[in-house]
Please model this.
Amino acid sequence: MRLWIKDPIAILAEGAERGVVVEDGVIVELVARGNEPALPVDQTFDASNHVITPGLVNTHHHFFQTLTRAHPSAINKELFPWLTSLYPIWARNVTPETFRMATRLALTELLMSGCTAAADHHYLFPAGLDEAVDIQVEEATRIGIRMTVTRGSMNLSEKDGGLPPDSVVQDEDTILADCERVLSRYHDTSEGSFIQVALAPCAPFTVTKRLMRDSVALAEKYDCRLHTHLGETKDEDDYCEHHFNCRPVDYLEECGWLNDRVWLAHGIHFTDEEVKRLGHACVGVCHCPTSNMVLASGQCRTKELEAAGVTVGLGVDGSASNDNSNLMEGVRHALMINRLTYDAASVTHFDVFRWATEGSAKCLGRNDIGAIAVGKQADMSFYTLDELRFSGSGDPLAALVLCGAHSADRVMIAGAWKVMNGLPVHIDVERLRYEHGEAAKRFLESLQ
Model:
């Protein structure tokens, strides 16, 4: 079936003023101003009430943390004390059941904000949660969203001088064996794939050098991406200098991680020389503006990173430091914090949309999503300007960012509608809210 998505208010694509034609889940034609589709179409969707963007791509998250949003033990703290407050709570309460519910809610929330592809960095493995990756694949498949499922890991705990409790880490052999298992079972590198797997040791202060290096070898064997936290806080710099006698980027290089398979979360505290090294290695950086502001971690040097050749993507980060899973809100926050870092003319709405679409897709190693162009997957988000916040706005695309668009009216993935009239087509949102809320109650019980 050939579908003409016709006459949008505005669309984030050149030469598509009259919309796009979709066939078999792929964009096959851009219809320029004054034109009609070159070939007959089977169906038309009237987009005259919509502003269309490529589907947003989230490149860093921690789905399980939706269960501890605004948790009384962790609010008003920076990263390390925030982590030490929450680790024991997560260790006691994250089970396969609560993890499934957290994943379902995070994916649904992302989808409703206009996100069509997401990466989750899951690194917490208390007893009984050995099949975390399997759970996330099941939930992403059920909802119909694209996902890069990262097999995260931690093998340095409190007894080793690390931050996490002993009960949430695994030994290296267990980790590496499961990495191979999930890569063999789920990693799909084909065009238009819905599930891919990446390897994601958590951070320098929670994993060994051997695990970092062996992860590189597995990534090369299975042709997958590599992900970790780096350069998020000055505490991390101090930790690396104390334990490894070097800065985080030096440590990354020692472990064989300065290569184009890698994308890093946060990437705030880099020197000029380190920015150049990262660009030379074609490393990606996921900018997480909301989380960075909540935890007072610092300001990512997005412009310098891009100028050096680093791909910049966008992520919401964990829902206990961001406190929601809304990537469209993250787009607005990226504009605001980067204008504060630079100036109003240097960072535009086109920049932040690029980070959330093309840049994020490239971080995940994908060239089939992230743009509205012929040959790309038909992943698009449709926003209306009907709310009071948009009244009086002149530039529709800029208005999505400046006036604070929060949810998509429609979302299409591979040519199929996944959100219609603001609601996901396969999820009972009211029931999800109740079930997730009930699951989250146990995370507060220890405070009572």
User: Anything to note?
Assistant: DSSP finds 14 helices and 18 strands in the chain. The first helix runs from residue 79 to 93. The chain has a mean pLDDT of 96. The CA atoms of residues 5 and 45 lie 5 Å apart.
